[in-house]
Amino acid sequence: MSEILRKQFLRHIAQTSPAPQLIEVARAEGVFFYTPEGKPYYDLISGVSVNNVGHANTAVIEAVQRQVADYMHIMVYGEMVERPQVEFARLLAETLPEPLDSVYFLNSGAEAVEGALKLAKRYTARTEMISMRRAYHGSTHGAMSMMGAPEGEEWKGAFRPLLPDTKAISFNSFDDLAEITERTACVLCEPVQGEAGVCLPAEGYLQALRQRCDEVGALLIFDEIQVGMGRSGEMFAMQKYGVTPDIVCLAKALGGGMPLGAFVSSQKIMSTLTHDPVLGHITTFGGHPVCCAAGLAAMRYLQENRVVEDVERKGALYEELLKDHPQVKEIRRNGLLMAVELGQSEKLYKIMDFFIEEGILSDWFLFCDTAFRISPPLVISDDEIRDSVKIIRRCLDRL
Ligand SMILES: Cc1ncc(COP(=O)(O)O)c(C=O)c1O
Q1: Ligand 1 atom closest to Cα of residue 140
Q2: How many Cα atoms sit within 13 Å of 265 on the Cβ side?
C-alpha cells in the first residue's frame, strides 16, 4: 500500500478504533481477497457473516449488473411495485415457516431491529422490551438500548440516555423467563448468540422462551442477522431449533454482499404499521432494487446449489481438524460459525498478528476477546478448509 493512501485513510476515513487492520483490498474472489501486491488472504470472516455465497459470485454480479441497467432508486419504500423486491419477499415467505410472510426491507441489521421493536410496541400497545445479556443487535440508539453487554455501561454509558423501559435477562436461564410479564411488548433474542462468542441455546430453552412469550402475550423477535441465510446449517436457525418467532430480523448475508436488512412477520402483525399512524415506519432506500436483485440471486444460488446442506459437514470438518491442537481449549460452533477458544486475550492478540502475516483474516468477538472467529463463505471447499487449517495450526504453534 502506498504511504499516501495509508495517510489519507487515517486522515479522512472516520476511525472506529486506535488499531485498524490497514490492509488494502484490490479484489476478491471465492474465499480469498487480494492486496494490490497480489498477496492472498483467506477470508475466514465473510465480512462478518455477509459473503455466504463467496466473493465475486457470478450469479450475484449478473443480477446486479442487470438491475443497475434497468433502474435504481425510484421512490421511497412501499409505493412502487419493484419486481426484485416482490420476488425476493415471496421467496423469503415461501422459505420461512408460517405465518412469517410479510417482509419489510431496510438497509442494515440495526435498522431491521429498530423496525421490529417499533412494530412490537405498536402491535402490543406495551412499552417494556427485553433482550439477552451479551447480545449485540446493532449500534443505533434503539438497537444499542437492547445491547445486553456483560458490563453494559462500558459500551453504552457514554451514549445515555437510551430507550427507557428496557432490560436484559440471561440467555439460557430458565429462571429469568419469569421476568417476561404482561407488561412486556417483546423479547429480542439471537437464537445463537454471535458476538458473545458463539453461545448455543440450551436444550429446550428457545421452546420455553416461546411458551413464556405466548403465556403473557409478548412478541418473540429473533435476530437472525448473523446466523440466518444458511450459516447455521439450515436456511434459518429457527428451522434448526424448531421455534418460530413472531418477528425475525435479517441482514448481513441477506443482500448477497449488498446492504440489505429486513424484518419479517405475519401480515396480521405487520399491517398495524399502515394506520394510527399511517406510515408507521419509513425508509427512502430500504429494499433498494439492486440490493434486492443481489439478495434474490444469492438466495437462489444457495438453494439451487444445495450449499446449505453441506454447511454442517464443513463446520464439523473444521472442528475435527483443529480441536486436538494443545492451544485450543474449546470450539463453540453453529454450522460454519465458530469460536476457537484460546482462554487468554494475550494469546488472541498475538495470533491475530500471525494470521495477518500468514494470509488469514479472522477476528475476535465484541464480548469475547479470548476466542477467534471462523466464519468463512459457505462455499468454501474441503481443500480450502484443510489448507486454511494448516496455516491456522502453524500460527497456533507459534503461541
Ligand atoms: C446479531 C446481530 N444483530 C445486528 C447486527 C447489526 O447489523 P448492522 O451492522 O448491519 O447494523 C449485527 C452486526 O454485527 C449482529 O451480529
Answers
A1: 11
A2: 23
pLDDT digits (tens, 9 = 90+) for 235-293: 999 999 999 999 999 999 999 999 999 999 999 999 999 999 999 999 999 999 999 99
DSSP 8-state secondary structure symbol assigned to residue 15: P
SS3 76: coil
The position carrying cell 441455546 is 201
* Best probe residue, ligand 1, of 45, 50, 136, 199 (max atoms within 8 Å of C-beta): 136
51 CB near ligand 1 (under 6 Å): no
> What string of DSSP letters covers 309-362?
GGHHHHHHHHHHHHTTSTT--EEEEETTEEEEE-S-HHHHHHHHHHHHHHTEE-
Q: Which residues pair with 29 in a beta bridge?
A: 32
Cα distance between residue 320 and residue 152, in whole Å:
35
Q: What is the pLDDT of residue 151?
A: 62
Residue 133 Cβ inside 6 Å of ligand 1? The answer reads no
- All domains of the chain in start order, with CATH: 3-52+307-397 (3.90.1150.10), 58-304 (3.40.640.10)
DSSP 237-302: HHHHHT---SEEEE-GGGGBTB--EEEEE-HHHHGGGGSSSSSSS--SSTT-HHHHHHHHHHHHHH
Q: What digits encode the pLDDT tens for the residues 151-187?
A: 667 888 899 999 999 999 999 999 999 999 999 999 9
114 Cβ closer than 6 Å to some ligand 1 atom: no
